[in-house]
Design brief:
The protein contains 15 helices and nine strands. By secondary structure, the chain is an alpha/beta fold. Bound molecules: coproporphyrinogen III.
């Protein structure tokens, strides 16, 4: 069976048998790559994502170096937030900072429903340019999930506990839900634009859902994820739902109408399959810390996970979260080659 990377990725998402699991990994275009750092030296993050040519080059860097099966558009979950003029910048080594967060209920009124067409067309240009370059490989679009994006708007930075977000929701429930409804529309617009321009799948990053109890998730997060998933233009494409540290939410997650879930290393692949009633394609779950160790350990752990994953059709090799910026390139190569060698095994 000779499959193109794109066919391999699509078949895995369809739960068809493949020669080997497809592989891509989160933050594959990022600071562990010398060619990324070379561009980053003279540019801010914003200058890189807002220039379609530069962003396309960065999206393709890991494909050129490692011939992965899928590329993920180089942008950020917060891209649709820049046009809101609340002072968002992504600072090197720190992450996103919002100068004027939505920390009082009246500020919700100021939130405009942004669209890529009107407010950040550079993303559309990037998707078009990348798709033109990428015929045989899969292309993944993405967005943040509503609760995660709302936590940035309310707290103004990456949260460590979601305390301010929850307090806002409990003090001003109506305004919280109004905010989440607006954010959901913003996300739908971002996903639709990427789908219109022919990405093969989209991933929804719910990075801070781990701070919610199952009951809180049910009220503060899931209804808005569902709203996105029920959008007819979005549901015609495979959707991958990513969260981490959410084993306690797995029953709730199992109710989502998604194609795949991306899991971290706090749960095994077989356990995740079982607890989600075999409903989903599974993506993940190599701990990126492994790649900071030895070649031998990298080979061994990659092999274990890839073998466990491919026991059942419908598995995509990935890390459990974004690759660490100090990862040696040799270990990335070993990981990629180990998965590729399964083809002959
Ligand atoms: O994965 C990829 O290669 C595609 C591009 C991508 C980026 N951010 C580029 C980026 C994706 C998919 C994201 C998603 C994202 N952004 C998430 C969800 C995934 C996760 O890790 O939970 C979140 C929470 C964000 C918000 C964000 N943007 C943070 C917390 C940071 C700082 C983290 C860091 O590694 O410094 C960013 C900046 C960012 N987004 C960088 C990259 C490559 C680093 C920019 C730099 O300084 O060079």
């Amino acid at each position: 069976m000779s499959l193109t990377p794109k066919q391999r990725f699509e078949k895995a998402l369809n739960r068809e048998t493949t020669d080997r699991p497809p592989i891509w990994f989160m933050r594959q275009a990022g600071r562990y790559l010398p060619e990324y750092k070379e561009i980053r030296k003279n540019k801010t993050f914003e200058q890189m994502i807002q220039d379609p040519e530069i962003a396309t080059t960065i999206t393709l860097q890991p494909i050129k170096r490692f011939d992965l099966d899928a590329a993920i558009i180089f942008t950020d979950i917060l891209t649709p937030i820049y046009p809101l003029k609340i002072g968002l910048t992504i600072k090197q080594g720190i992450g996103p900072i919002i100068e004027k967060p939505i920390n009082t209920p009246d500020k919700v009124n100021n939130i405009e429903i942004t669209t890529p067409e009107e407010h950040y067309s550079y993303l559309i240009d990037e998707v078009k340019m990348t798709r033109k370059e990428l015929k045989k490989h899969a292309l993944i679009g993405f967005a943040g999930a509503p609760f995660t994006i709302a936590s940035y708007l309310i707290e103004g930075k990456s949260t460590r506990d979601a305390n301010k977000t929850k307090a806002f929701a409990w003090k001003y429930p109506e305004k919280y839900h109004e905010l989440l409804s607006k954010v959901t529309e913003i996300i739908i617009n971002k996903l639709k634009a990427q789908i219109k321009n022919n990405v093969d799948a989209v991933q929804l990053f719910d990075s801070w859902a781990n701070y919610l109890s199952p009951k809180q998730y049910e009220i503060l997060a899931r209804p808005y994820v569902e709203k996105i998933l029920n959008n007819p233009e979005i549901s015609k494409k495979p959707v991958i739902y990513y969260s981490r540290g959410t084993s306690h939410l797995i029953e709730k997650i199992s109710q989502l109408n998604v194609t795949a879930i991306s899991i971290d290393h706090t749960i095994s692949i077989s356990q995740a399959r079982k607890e989600t009633h075999e409903k989903f394609v599974i993506q993940g779950n190599l701990d990126p810390a492994v790649l900071l160790s030895t070649a031998e350990k990298t080979r061994e752990e990659t092999m274990k996970i890839a073998r466990e994953g491919r026991k059942t059709p419908g598995y995509i090799f990935n890390l459990s979260k974004g690759i660490d910026k100090n990862t040696p390139l040799e270990n990335v190569e070993i990981m990629v080659n180990t998965v590729k060698q399964l083809q002959e095994a």
